[in-house]
Structures are given as structure tokens and as C-alpha cells.
Amino acid sequence: MFDKFRDECGVFGIFGHPESANLTYLGLYALQHRGQESAGIAAADGTRIRTSRAMGYVNDAFSSDTLAGLTGHLAVGHVRYSTAGESRLANAQPIVIDSAHGQLALGHNGNLINAGEVHDALVREGAIFQTSTDSEIVVHLFARSKADNVESAIVEAIGQVRGAYSFVLMTKDRIIGVRDPHGFRPLALGRLGDAWVICSETCAMDLIGATYVRDVEPGEMVVASATGLRSVKPFPPAKHSQCIFEHVYFSRPDSYVFGESVNEVRTEFGRRLARESGVPADVVVPIPDSGVCAAVGFAEQSGIPMRMGLIRNHYVGRTFIQPQQSIRHFGVRVKLNPVKSILNGKRVVLVDDSIVRGTTSRKIVRMVRSAGAREVHMRISCPPTISPCFYGVDTPRRSELIAATHTLDEIRRYLNADSVAYLSLDGLTESVPSGKSRYCTSCYTGVYPVAFPRDEAAYLQLALKLNPEPAPPSTPQPVTMDGFDGDESGSALSSLAGVGSSRDGRRTD
Ligand code: SF4
């Protein structure tokens, strides 16, 4: 709906509770912001796994009858947004297979960067894939493992993939959480009475009354079974590269992610932004909802009052019917409406978490001006986003990222703002208490912590997301104000940059 990087997926698992499927359903509700295309739950009773998956929101995917059929004291669940693979039911998770090691259910948050080569090797050996997701290669590797027990087979399978993964897995009698050695995506561990909970964000624990214990550590595998919780670290250690964008935008502000309060980190981004790029103004206005925490920090640091000068309509769902072109001029107004009494005649600091293509930001600046604002100063609580993500986040190609192809002044002119400023990279990393060395910042630097296989260019996201022939640095793309209408597909900016296309999945077979 907005011009943002798109959330990846959310995972949830619980062991040792008679209402495991119902609690997983609630957990997925809390994680809905991480994926809205499909949802699934697999539950087990010690003898077999039952599963239900459907397209759409959690609310639509399950009925009380469905949940009643998912019996047992352990369950795993997944909400999906397709970072790799098409949006169709076959790609919904948890994936459930039957193998020589018994049944296995798997839910994945992340992106496996060597999925292409592993997939092709498996196909050459006769594997038949049922989905177009990177996650399926793990269950194939598991099924082919000659290891003499389930957990060793899981370790052997996961040991062959590289990239970003936070997995929840379930056999008929245990749940398993695994986080990649870099720790790209979050995975938290908690307790509900005697039950163990593993999930992407702690907001899912809050909803069911569970208590956050700690994170599953990078490279750690935790196993919850009738004998209690066990932890092993079976993978070679690697430099930690936790996704800092979880703090910038993805995670809910009421969650603890990577051991930190998202709300506190995000508010500190705003304070730091005000120290770095303060501007005389009358009012600080967040772009809801993602800009609210940073705007609170900006207002606190600058002493400029914060007011809700833009009101978001929370009931614009994915079923919103785009009207005909002739009446599309209302554009972003269906989602945001300005409050004239707050904006009229004022010098406004607009605070948002990020700018991707710039298309929505431009419309919002126009809207704020049309409500009477005298000046509009855009402040962004992260650095310029100049490079795509290959670790489980849906991003446009580099050529579609406005900050990758335009100078700061060109961006200001495109947005028609009086000034534009981003948080510095140091400001971003120094605002995270656990230390900048533990975070991935690749989308701001273009430096990637996990190398790509050289022979993957034909089908990897690398080939899909990066410009095949980068424009010469001496010929910056022109910025014009043409092509602006109610369309948020990025076409306006694409026409500026001379580049088309939209998001791409890794594999679309
Ligand atoms: S590239 Fe950006 S979005 Fe992707 S994992 Fe790194 S910080 Fe997160």
C-alpha cells in the first residue's frame, strides 16, 4: 500500500500446551504485519502431524472447525509474504512432508542465497519440487539425509544452505527453532507456563500471555520436547549481521527484537536525526504509522511539538478496488488524510522511517502543502536506501531506489520539499545499544556479508534486482516532475530513471 520495503515472513511455534493450534493462531495474528499473502498451522499430538494452510489474512485462513481439527500439544505456524516464489497456495507454509525420518513441518523466515544451485543439483538427482520457494530445498535435503536420527538429519540439511533463515520445524513430538549463524532474521524464545514458545517477535508472546526468555542465538538450534529444552550450536560461527531494518521499519514497536525494544531504538533514531538535521519549524508530523516513534524522538530532542497532522485509514485492505483512471486523482488520500487545523500556515517537519522509490512521499508532501503548510521539511530516520536486500526482504531493483540514482537535492526537488535529510549511517548504528558490529546495513552500503555463488547470476535475485549494465557515474539521471498521478506502482520514478519493472521473486516457475 505504501512505498516501503516489504516484510518477509513470520514464524511461530509452541510445545507443551493442549491448545497449541489456537495459541499459534493468536500468535500469527500478532505477526500478521510480517506477511499477508498466506497463513498456515501444523499441529501434532505425538503420533502424527495435521496441517491447514490458506491464502489471505490469518482471520480468513482459519475457521473454528479448522482449528478444532488441529489437535495436539505442539504446533508451528507461518504467515507468508513471497520474497522468493509466487503467491499461490502451494507455496504457503508450513511445508509438511513425510520421509524416512518421519513427518516434518517447516516454516521459514528469510532467503537462501544458494537455493538455486542446491535446487538444480537436487533436480538433476531426480527430486520433484512441489513449490517454487527456496524453503522446499531444506525438506528435500532432510529427506535424503542418511543421518541416523531426526535432529542430525535437520542439521545436515540446514548445513548445506546459506543466507538468511529463522526456521521453526516440527516433528510428531518436538519443535525446533534454528537461526542462521549471521542471525539475519529475529527468533525469540519464551515460556507460557510449562510450554515453550519460539516466534519471530515478542509481540506474539504478549498476545498469548507468554514471557520472553531470550533470543535464539545466531547459529543456535533449540529443541523443545518432552525431555525439556536443549540447545546446540552445530554450525560454524559467522560474523553477526542482524537486519537493522527490523528496527527501522519491519518489527512492531511493541516487540523486543535482537534483545532490544524496537520502540526505544526507533525513538532514539528520531532523537539522533533531530541532533543531526534539526530545522526551525512549528510542528513535527509523523507519517503514520511507521514514522510515529521517530517523530516522538525528533520532537522530544528538538522541542518542537508533535501533532498528528496526517490521519491514516486503517481499513483499506488488500481488497481495495482501484477506481478508473479518471477518478484516481485522490491517490494516497484513501490511506492518509491531512488535518488542516494542524498544518495550515505551519512550517512542518514530516518524519518517516524510510523512502524507497519516493512516489508515496511525493504525494504526501503535496497533500501537506495542499492543506496549507508554509514549509515542508522531510526527515527520514534511516540512511538513504541505495541497494536491494537478498536476505529475506522484498525490495525493488537498485535502479528503482530513488537514493541509488539521485542526489539529495534531486530527491528534494522530486518530493517538492523545502529540505530533505536522512539519518547518517553512524547515527543509525550508534542508536542500537548492542553495537553496530552486530548488524547488517547492506541496503545502505551495498556491501553484502554473505557472498553470492558466482554461477548463480542467471536466476538469483542478484540478476533480477541489480542493473545488468550500471549507468555511467558521470551521467546522472534527470529528474522531472512529469508523470505524477494517483498510481503508486513506481511508474513515475521509473520513467524518470528510465527503468521499468517491479518486484521480482527469485524463482517463478
Ligand atoms: S540488506 Fe537491509 S533489509 Fe536486508 S537484511 Fe540487511 S539491513 Fe535488513
Question: Can you put this structure into words, describing what you see?
Answer:
The chain is an alpha+beta fold and 509 residues long. A seven-stranded antiparallel beta sheet has the order 3-2-4-1-10-9-11. Helix 9 crosses helix 10 (292-302). The longest helix is centred in the middle third of the chain and has 16 residues, at 262-277. The protein is elongated, with a radius of gyration of 23 Å. The relative contact order is 0.12. It binds iron/sulfur cluster (SF4). Iron/sulfur cluster is lined by residues 184, 243-245, 389, 391, 393, 440-443.
Strand and helix layout:
Layout: E1 9-15, H1 20-30, E2 38-44, E3 49-55, H2 58-61, H3 64-69, E4 74-80, E5 95-99, E6 102-112, H4 115-124, H5 136-144, H6 150-158, E7 163-170, E8 175-179, E9 188-192, E10 195-199, H7 203-208, E11 211-215, E12 221-225, E13 228-232, E14 242-243, H8 245-250, E15 256-257, E16 260-261, H9 262-277, E17 283-286, H10 292-302, E18 310-312, E19 336-338, H11 340-343, E20 347-352, H12 359-370, E21 375-380, H13 402-405, H14 408-415, E22 419-422, H15 425-430, E23 439-440, H16 442-445, H17 461-465, H18 491-497
Parallel strand pairs: 14-23, 17-20, 20-21, 21-22
Antiparallel strand pairs: 1-4, 1-10, 2-3, 2-4, 5-6, 6-7, 7-8, 8-12, 9-10, 9-11, 12-13, 15-16, 18-19
Helix pairs in contact: 5-6, 9-10
The structure holds iron/sulfur cluster.
Iron/sulfur cluster (SF4) binds at residues 184, 243-245, 389, 391, 393, 440-443.
